[in-house]
Amino acid sequence: MVQIEQIKEQLIFFLHNEIFDPSIQINADTDLLESGFDSFSLVKLLVFIEKQYSLQVPEDKLNEDTLRNVNQLSELIYAFQEN
Q1: DSSP secondary structure string, 30-67?
Q2: Proportion of the chain above pLDDT 70, given as a percent
Q3: 15-54: string of b/e by CB count within 10 Å (b at 16+)?
Q4: Whole-model pTM?
Q5: 10-to-58, 60 alpha-carbon distances in Å
Q6: Which distant-in-sequence residues (6+ apart) come within 8 Å of 16 by Cβ?
Q7: What SS3 string covers 1-30?
Q8: Average pLDDT of 51-56?
Q9: Using CA atoms, how far apart are residues 29 and 31, in angstroms rounded to an integer?
Q10: pLDDT, averaged across the chain
Q11: Which tens digit of pLDDT belongs to each residue from 4-39?
């Protein structure tokens, strides 16, 4: 099982390199939705999560709160790893 701090680092790296413009600074507290995270970003993110962590996040768990920032998203991924 991947530890939560490692999940945060991997997500930040992915978001910085695959989702957001390199000029946008991403950290664990950055508001992803306000930074331009959209439905295309969500699809890319879900594919990354499935490949990286071998899990599928149920759609009913994806909302403004869980997608707000890397901290929230990491907690969600970490919780699903435990189940």
Answers
A1: --TTTTT--HHHHHHHHHHHHHHHS----GGG-STTTT
A2: 99
A3: bbeebbeeeeebeeebebeebebeeebeeebeebbeeebe
A4: 0.93
A5: 20, 23
A6: 22, 24, 26
A7: CCCHHHHHHHHHHHHHHHHCCCCCCCCCCC
A8: 95
A9: 6
A10: 94
A11: 999 999 999 999 999 999 899 999 999 999 999 999
Alpha-carbon distance of 63 to 37, in angstroms, equals 12
Q: Which residue has the tokens 């994806």?
A: 62
Amino acid present at 11: L
Count Cβ neighbours within 10 Å for each residue of 56-76 and write b for 16 or more, e otherwise.
Answer: ebeeeeeeeeebbbbebbbeb
Q: Assign 46 a pLDDT band (cuts: 50, 70, 90).
A: very high
CA atoms within 13 A on the CB side of 48: 19
- How long, in residues, is the chain? 83
Contacts of 24 (CB under 8 A, 6+ apart): 16, 35, 36
